[in-house]
Input
Amino acid sequence: MHLVALEQVRKIKANMEGAEGVYKQIPISKADGTPVFSFRVFTIECGGHTPWHSHPFEHLNYIIEGNGAVVTEDGEHELKKGDFVLMLPGETHQYRNTSVSCPMVMICAVPKEYE
Amino acid sequence: MHLVALEQVRKIKANMEGAEGVYKQIPISKADGTPVFSFRVFTIECGGHTPWHSHPFEHLNYIIEGNGAVVTEDGEHELKKGDFVLMLPGETHQYRNTSVSCPMVMICAVPKEYE
Output
């Protein structure tokens, strides 16, 4: 068993091209022996956003705190604490903190190969 | 994309043998087209618990709300909001709500075949 509190996990600035004001933690990682999936946590500052991009694997999200939006080809969809999102492989998407109450914090689970 | 708020998801009493005061929701399910993993949410009432059991797949947990404990062969480990747990395949375990502030609510992600 691996048990960790979010505040104990190292937080680094995400250096993905197209990301602004995004910080990353990996509370459940391949380094912890996870067999298939990893749990990452992204903290997005006010006005920050992830890249507008797609990739061949899915995202499973849970909004821990804050407000924002997920943008897809269909438009912008509001996100709030308690929401869950499944983004399928190949869907172009972007997460945005559109709020004035900051930050937005969310779980973003992915196959461990892509953590 | 599939987007849902937790309160929109049907909640049923978990009828696993050995479970007491446990309710289950599946905000990200194989019915939503998840490729590999499902996100379930368990709500455990005061004094409630999941079975003391093991199985051939892992759990990835996040404590959304409340306090309790996860019991393993090593003993009882305190859980609180913001904690993450990786329970490996074959590890015997039980989640307990040991608090007086109820309920304890947690994500329990598993391979979709076992949702």
Q: What stands out?
A: The beta strands of chain A are 2-5, 12-13, 20-28, 37-49, 59-65, 67-72, 75-80, 83-87, 93-96, 104-111.
